[in-house]
Amino acid sequence: MLTDSKYEDIVKNSACILISGKRKSGKDYMTRLILRRCYEAQLITTVLHLSFPIKSHFASTHGLDLAELLTDGPYKERYRKQMVAWGEQELDRDPYIFTRQCLNQAIASTHSSSIPDVFIVADCRRSADLSYFVDIFKRSNCILIRLCASNEVRANRGWIYTPSIDDEETECGLDNVTDWDYVLNNDSSDATHKEFVDWLMAKITSIKA
Question: Domains in the chain, start-ordered, CATH in brackets?
Fold first, then answer.
């Protein structure tokens, strides 16, 4: 695998949380919840969105509003299929193009004395996404999280089944993964969320020990 081995020593003491889930499963919400707890624990934390390079390029070349593309609103959904198609073309040439760009940017924006304690990858969608970060951070420092929500709950959050989106790799590429560290039923339960985040913070502490 062609990865950025130059970063292995830099992040050797960092935890990497890899979050996966289908559309409207609550990835952004859980990312914010985890981020808040990390800040409360005074852990230097950075969030990586693998979709950002796709949206940034797509917005600049098509004259679109990047800020709107970064939301969960109807504006993004209007262009989702086109963005996915362009992203797949790029990934066919280099499966790690967006993971590499995100990690490069995250590390370039930090000072050598303040490498994040925790990296949160908020939107893993493909096996190559997981393998890239596991290769660099090592499996023992990675926490693989799968968010699940019923179709009914997802629909209440605005999800509408869309052919050529919901049946493509961006939504189904990790369906057969079995070695998640935690599978969270994210149908909305504060008690369930607290139990999960408490477990996660303990896991991060054990990695940082």
Answer: 5-208 (3.40.50.300)
157 is in an annotated binding site: yes
Residue 146 annotated as part of some ligand binding site? no
Is 100 part of any known ligand binding site? no
Non-local CB neighbours of 202 within 8 Å, separated by 6+ positions: none
Asked if residue 141 lies in contact with residue 207, where contact means CB atoms within 8 angstroms, the answer is yes
Q: Hey, how many other C-beta atoms are within 10 angstroms of the C-beta on 163? A: 8
State pLDDT tens for residues 68-122: 888 878 888 888 888 888 888 888 999 999 899 899 989 988 876 789 999 999 9
- Between helix 97-108 and helix 127-137 the angle, nearest 10°, is 40
Q: Is 203 annotated as a binding residue?
A: no
Amino acid at 13: N
Q: Return left, alpha or beta for 24; rule: phi > 0 is left, psi -120 to 50 is alpha, else beta.
A: left
Pairing of strands 15-21, 118-124: parallel
Residues 200, 17 contacting (CB under 8 angstroms): yes
Cα(98)–Cα(117) distance, rounded to whole angstroms?
Answer: 22
